[in-house]
Amino acid sequence: MTLKNDVEEIVLSEEQIQDIARELGKRITEDYEGKTPVLIGLLKGSIMFMADLIKHIDTHLQIDFMDVSSYIGTKSSGEVKILKDLSTSVDGRHVLIVEDIVETGTTLNSIMGLIKSRNAASLEIVTLLDKPVNRKTEVDVKYIGTEIPDGFVIGYGLDYDEKYRNLPYIGLLKPELYQ
User: What EC class does the entry list (predicted)?
Assistant: First the structure.
């Protein structure tokens, strides 16, 4: 039995993900020319996307991470918990939050409020996936890799119960495995 057997359908192939990372990296390079942005990866899901994205950003940058959680199983609890805060000051800095998926908007709105309160010079979001069908709170996302339909996605950092993060693509998890 392999992980592939749990995938109902591949949503984004490895190649498609790399194309998205390359294109977003190019746009970010142009937009942040002459600046040194701080890219903040939201753990754990964003690590694979962030690692590939920064390879395509051709300007000086810093990286940091926050570990935040609002999910219980497959649903957002609506309560955001900060498990690991930043080690870098964002005061007067250009901040780019790197997210794997924007779904309800709850987590991002909470983190954006926190970053703004710390006097960032600017704040933008880059996400690999956007799933607006589940949006509870509007979020202004400047850099979107691709929009996806409803369904529970796994792979490339995205998990179900801490499993499947190591898949090199993004797939739909078979519903019988989480319902």
Answer: transferase
25-80 pLDDT per residue, tens: 999 999 999 999 999 999 999 999 999 999 999 999 999 999 987 655 556 556 77
**Omega within 30 of 0 (cis) for the link into 44:** yes
* Beta-strand pair 143-147/94-102: unpaired
Residue with tokens 């797939």: 171
CA 38 to centroid of chain Cα atoms: 15
Cβ atoms 139, 108 nearer than 8 A: yes
The single residue listed with the structure tokens 């294109």 is: 23
Nearest Cα residue to 42 out of 69, 17, 10: 69
Does pTM top 0.85 for this prediction? Answer: yes
* Residues noted as catalytic: 103
Task: Indicate the angle between helix axes 47-54 and 14-31, nearest 10 degrees.
Answer: 60
DSSP state of 160: B
pLDDT in tens, 135-172: 899 999 999 999 998 899 999 999 999 999 999 999 99
CA pair distance 167, 28, nearest whole angstrom: 26
